[in-house]
Amino acid sequence: MSPLAKLLEAALFASSAPISRESLAELDPDVSDDEVAGALTELRTQYDEAGHGVELIETGGGWQILTRAEYTDAIERAQLASRPARLSAAALETLAIIAYRQPIARAEVEEIRGVNCGAILKSLHERGLIEVTGRAEGMGRPLMYGTTPAFLEQLAIRHLDELPRADELAVALRPAGEVRPSA
Prior knowledge:
By secondary structure, the chain is of the alpha+beta class. The protein has nine helices and five strands; from the N terminus they run αααββααβααββαα.
């Protein structure tokens, strides 16, 4: 493994949150962005080919070393890792609306859900899953909400483009045993 890959590995191992490629490049001012990208690829390949119990993933706007998904249950059973607090169904629904429609105002979320969402928005904001992204034009200039890098990290995705498409959700949410009409 190259010295740069070893340096990146040490920094990623020491961090509990994703580190951006730009921040990783600051570890050694003599390397280029391409060299950092190459070292990340080298490190990822090393973990994959050698069958390590950890993997290097791009998530939440950065890179992070995480345990492989197949070991999650065993690690949680042994209580070696803390499990993030679960979100209620109402919070998940609100978060999904924000993720797919962002930037979106509270009134729009409440119109879609049909209920007041003030407390849920506050909770999601306190958990760092949503943030105020600006203000809408018009009467009252309401706050607009969007998801945060922590949201991407929780879902283990790099970009919002990786969220399931609406047509994929319709298939996933279909009751078990329901037969799809033929075209």
